[in-house]
Amino acid sequence: MSTTLQSPKARRPDEDALIERFGSSRKSRFARHLALCLIGLFMMYPLLWLVSSSVKPNGLIFSDLSLWPAEWSPQNYADGWTALEYDFGVYFSNSIVIVVLSIVGNLFSCSLAAYGFARLNFTGRKLFFALMLGTMMLPGHVLLIPQYILFAKLGWLNTYYPLLVPNFLATNAFYIFLMVQFMRQLPQELDDAARIDGCGPFRTFWSIILPLCRPAFATTAIFTFISVWNEFFGPLLYLTDPELYTVPLALRQFVDSEGQSQWGQMFAMSVLSLAPIIGFFIAGQKYLVKGIATTGLK
Question: How much is the average pLDDT of 60-74?
């Protein structure tokens, strides 16, 4: 019985290429990780400064740029919560309602549109798909005035309808394209098997395709959450009643045109407004990475 040992020089060509490209020594790996950590800390400095400034007195926020406050003022959180006309919980509730309904609308409408483009054959499918992609090239400001006139004619000003109804009509071409690319990689045999069992197009969509599209749905939900939660211009344009304001509009109220802005309270509420985004992102990170990594594969 003979045993053949592989010499260090007997590596495969792909192994040698990887070693040559990325290096194999412990020192080089440590140097790369150290460089990435330093770059990450540099990029996180604005966020860390925001958190630090939220517990500083107003007089030290712009004079003391260190991340460790020389004087602590955690009262900014309590004062900021009740500083405006309504408690900040009202604005959080408004934003949560809009975000949840927007996610539901985008998932339902965009998935239906994507299923039609990805799995059904109908006359003009490629043309309509190209037109749908073309809408991504239109700046939002081009549609601003026509949309405002339409919503004004419908009597929807100072309501949430202009912010919610478009999400239920599959108006976001990016989410449709993302789901189309994900659905196209699913085997066509699934549709054929469902058709043999007597399933129609909608039953196939609901029972077969939707359960397999969870990564794409999670990606769409996360992107929708971030964009809608941070949306400022839409609520500013359509909402006039302070009781209907969202979190970005409420944060804007802390800025006084006369220079008497309560920066500490505003930063404290800004930190709280980031918590839902970070938590939602962490909860769906696995599906987000999977959805982006597999989108576009065939």
Answer: 81
Per-residue pLDDT at 2 = 45
d(CA 121, CA 111): 16
Structure tokens at 236: 């500013």
pLDDT digits (tens, 9 = 90+) for 112-155: 999 999 988 888 899 999 999 998 888 888 888 999 999 999 99
pLDDT band of 292, cuts 50, 70, 90? low
Q: What pTM was computed for the model?
A: 0.80
- Report d(CA 174, CA 152) in Å as an integer: 27
Q: Which two tokens stand for residue 219?
A: 């990606």
What torsion, rounded to 10 degrees, do the Cα atoms 20, 26, 30, 36 define?
30
* Residue 220 near residue 110 (C-beta atoms within 8 A): yes
Which three-class secondary structure state does DSSP give residue 61?
helix
Q: How far apart are the first and last CA of the chain?
A: 47
Say what angle helices 125-134 and 88-119 make with each other, to 10 degrees.
150
- Looking at residue 13, its pLDDT comes to 52
Please tell me the distance from the alpha carbon of residue 77 to that of residue 79, in angstroms, as a whole number.
Answer: 6
Average pLDDT over residues 153-178: 93
Helix (H, G, I), strand (E, B) or coil at 219: helix
State both tokens at 91.
Answer: 């604005």
Quick check: 183 pLDDT over 80?
yes
* CB contact at 8 A, 213 and 114: no
User: How far is the C-alpha of 269 from the C-alpha of 76, rounded, in Å?
Assistant: 9
Neighbouring C-beta atoms of residue 152, cutoff 10 Å: 12
Neighbours of 213 (CB within 10 A): 21
